[in-house]
Design brief:
CATH superfamily: Fumarylacetoacetase-like, C-terminal domain
Order of helices and strands: HHEHEEEEHEHEEEHEEEE
Number of helices: 6
Number of strands: 13
Bound molecules: 2-oxoadipic acid, magnesium ion
Structural class: alpha+beta
Number of domains: 1
Length: 264
């Protein structure tokens, strides 16, 4: 993927997004000032943010696929899946209290997460290769937080903002992929005891392992690969749901148990 913006513009845009991420103060979407910005420019900004995050002493723990379900594409008005990186300092313990004062406008998503035991790479990665390289799957809640005002963006801007990545919580019961059918796993999302989302894992590109294969293909375009031991979230099954202090979320999955988180 070849960016069209020069290095100075990429660094300037990374400064803008980084400042918004660290201060939780929203900014206008990047394409307002850089209408020529495309997908490759978005990933160039994201890669620069990742380099800076690692330079601040944090560890890359994995990656996330986003905009991989119809519900998410319709909700956000973007119909191309994307990827983002996950760092050690974004992880939160199961059932813990997640602060909201350092986030702009958090939303939660329920996802199937994969943990890999072999590396995956290349432009032709398949569902079968992903399944063979998977150590286990487990349920996860992703807390996304667009740094753009009104949670409004386009593909290039959201990619530059690392796919709205903010926090994540994994839990439940790890299962081997051979023991379950990842197309038909049911999932119920509850907020404060009420059902706010219902779906099945196949909502994610037909099979969540296909979302991981898509992610590996994008990584290969960035000259990267997915190392063994990566934690990968495959994308929200339903629409994302806004949360505020006092809310609690439980995601209950067929076969995979449940995972929960609350907000303060
Ligand atoms: C982009 C991130 C989407 C998912 O699971 O679809 C995402 C956004 O909607 O802000 O993480
Ligand atoms: Mg997500």
């Amino acid at each position: 993927m070849k960016p069209t913006l020069n290095r100075d513009d990429i660094a300037r845009l990374a400064d803008r997004v980084e400042a918004a991420q660290l201060s939780a103060k929203p900014i206008q979407k990047l394409t307002d000032d850089y209408p020529q910005m495309g997908l490759a420019d978005g990933y160039a900004v994201q890669s620069e943010l990742r380099r800076r995050w690692i330079a601040r002493g944090h560890r890359l723990v994995g990656w996330k696929a986003g905009l991989t379900s119809k519900a998410k594409m319709v909700q956000m008005g973007v119909d191309v899946p994307s990827i983002g990186f996950l760092m050690s300092d974004m992880a939160r313990a199961e059932n813990s209290a997640v602060r909201t004062d350092d986030l702009v406008h958090p939303r939660v998503e329920c996802e199937v997460a994969f943990v890999t035991k072999a590396s995956l790479s290349g432009p032709h990665c398949t569902r079968e290769q992903v399944l063979a390289a998977t150590d286990f799957v487990l349920p996860a809640i992703e807390i996304i937080d667009s740094r753009f005002s009104g949670f409004k963006f386009d593909l290039a801007s959201v990619v530059a903002d690392n796919g709205s990545s903010a926090r994540f919580v994994a839990g439940g019961r790890p299962r081997a992929v051979g023991d379950i059918d990842l197309r038909t796993l049911g999932m119920v999302m509850e907020k404060n005891g009420e059902i706010v989302g219902l779906g099945a894992s196949g909502a994610v590109l037909g099979h969540p392992a296909d979302a991981v294969a898509m992610l590996v293909k994008v990584l290969s375009e960035l000259d990267e690969e997915l190392p063994a031991g990566s934690f990968v979230m495959s994308g929200g099954i339903t629409e994302a749901v806004a949360v505020k202090p006092g809310d609690s979320i439980v995601a209950r999955y067929q076969e995979l148990g449940s995972v929960s988180v609350r907000f303060i």
